[in-house]
Amino acid sequence: MHSVINTAGLSKTAAYLELKGQFSALLAGERDGLANSANLSALLFQALPGINWAGFYFLRGNDLVLGPFQGKVACVRIALGRGVCGTSALRRETIIVPDVHAFPGHIACDAASRSEIVVPLLSEGRLLGVLDLDSPELARFDAGDATGLAALVDQLLQKSDMDWLKG
């Protein structure tokens, strides 16, 4: 069993360094991408303060389809280009939204969410999906989160078999 260490009170750099170490321990001996995605969403949800949703959407055709997550029930399908997740996927870039109510076309799965960050999952130039985090706090996410989450996504993709998404 793995105990999650909360990162409250740490700098962003220290928090993500801690998360990288914790995630490395969770990845030890396990290559299943679905299982590792589930553990990463749980780790982020438990360890990062001010988060009310953390999870994945995986690309299926022209839609992002809900994957492992922690938080309230969520939208199951999001078209490419729709909402923050679909926009991030279409642009293949991380998007930080300080106030989701100011984002045109925002999809509100949880009315309590006020800010959001979405990081695309890219493998050899191919879009596999996105990692999505929501917060009930305005402007919860910044460049430090973008860098830290991108490193965790990279760790996930390097240490996991994601071939089931490439078919």
Describe the structure.
With 167 residues, this protein is an alpha+beta fold. It has one domain (26-166): Beta-Lactamase (2-Layer Sandwich), CATH 3.30.450. 37% of the residues lie in helices and 25% in strands. It is built from five helices and six strands, in the order H-H-E-E-E-H-E-E-E-H-H. The chain has a six-stranded antiparallel sheet, with helices on both faces. Strand 5 and strand 6 form a beta hairpin. Helix 2 packs antiparallel against helix 4. It starts with 11 loop residues before the first helix and ends with a helix.
Which descriptors apply to this entry?
167 residues, alpha+beta, Beta-Lactamase, six-stranded antiparallel β-sheet, 5 helices, globular
Could you say which overall geometry the principal axes of the C-alpha atoms support? globular
Tell me what the CATH architecture is: 2-Layer Sandwich
Helical stretch tally: 5
Order of the strands making up the biggest sheet: 3-2-1-6-5-4
- Tell me the CATH topology: Beta-Lactamase
Which segments are poorly predicted (pLDDT under 50) over 5 or more consecutive residues? none
Mean pLDDT over the full residue set: 94
Query: What class would the helix/strand composition place it in?
Result: alpha+beta
Helical percentage: 25-40%
Strand segment tally: 6
Give the C-level CATH assignment.
Alpha Beta
